[in-house]
Amino acid sequence: MLLQGKRFVVTGIASKLSIAWAIAEALHREGASLILTYPNEKMKKRVDMAAEKFDADLVLACDVASDDQIDVCFASVAAHWPDGIDGVVHAIGFAPAEELDGDFTQATTREGSAIAHDISSYSFVALAKAARELLAKRQGSLLTLTYQGSISVLPNYNVMGMAKASLEASVRYLAASLGKDGIRVNAVSAGPIRTLAASGIKSFRRMLDVNAKIAPLQRNVSQMEVGNAALFLLSPWASGITGEILFVDGGFNTVAISEQLMQIASDD
Ligand code: NAD
Ligand code: 0WE
Question: Which of 30, 76, 239, 251 makes an SS bond possible with 2, Cβ 3.0 to 4.6 Å?
């Protein structure tokens, strides 16, 4: 077991389909101890289920919109593990649903943009501030989840593309800032996966199909594949890696035009 005796805080579990669920599963499989967090009472039941399954030590409230909740949460983490933690997983993204539907210029608002950036990007910095002391005690690391929409444009991702670009910049600035404390900061850029955050997105099904036709592996990736990459970045095997965005997307990001798309285009 790669992570026996290691301790991690995992945010972002909303269902069994969550990327965070698969990350917690991978960490547990490798012998790590876990603390899981939930944003509100509605989500607590789901996180309790995960806690039972992965034998988590604690389940704590942590709505990342609130500095108070983040502080109270990490005070409880510190009380439980006074000699530090090995990692924090940030698997949180949110924009108001109306922002992710239709023409970017029309759909994007000041209010929606503020919320998307606050919850999806600044919250990673907020967790880093709260966890810094505990992470420094054990040369721990921070990990977040991002998406290709930060770099190139696709329909409807809209303001989340801006927020993910900001999140990825925060990975580099946090890595530079926290390196002096021995803390690493990385992201996994995952290909599209059907989760709660993807349900309600118009034509997500077709998005998955097109994605599989472009990606060199000619298929989509699973939560477990993301979980295993996350596990690596959080482990001592990645001790030389910080400020990195690791793509777990079947190679999608490397391709401009795939042979499959050439074929489809020559059909018409
Ligand atoms: P998900 O819906 O399972 O997870 C999103 C999580 O964000 C939920 O657990 C939700 O409770 C949490 N959250 C929202 N607002 C919060 C708040 N104020 N405080 C605390 N938590 C809050 O979906 P997912 O796809 O597993 O998303 C996890 C991460 O992976 C997100 O950052 C997402 O952008 C990223 N990602 C997803 C995909 C995909 O296709 N599913 C691809 C690449 C990256
Ligand atoms: O980052 C994400 C999910 C982002 C997301 C999704 C929702 C839906 C429900 C953020 N906020 C909300 N708010 C809601 O009310 N992904 C990478 C998954 C995703 O979302 C898309 C995608 C992909 C891929 C939206 C449009 C196009 C592609």
Answer: 30
Task: Report d(CA 38, CA 128) in Å as an integer.
Answer: 17
**Single pTM value for the model:** 0.98
For the Cβ of 60 lying below 6 angstroms from any atom of ligand 1, the answer is no
| Tokens standing for residue 201 | 């997105």
Q: Name residues whose C-beta falls within 8 Å of residue 96's C-beta, 6 or more positions apart in sequence.
A: 111, 112, 115, 116
Ligand 1 mutation pick, 19, 123, 125, max ligand atoms within 8 A of CB: 19
The 3-state DSSP class for residue 78 equals helix
Whether the per-residue pLDDT at 253 is higher than 70: the answer is: yes
Place of tokens 């989340």: 160
Condensed to tens digits (0 to 9), the pLDDT of residues 60-107 reads: 999 999 999 999 999 999 999 999 999 999 999 999 999 999 999 999
Give the closest residue to 99 by CA, choosing from 55, 160, 57, 53.
160
Structure-token pair, residue 34: 């876990």
Q: Whole-angstrom distance between the N-terminal and C-terminal Cα of the chain?
A: 53
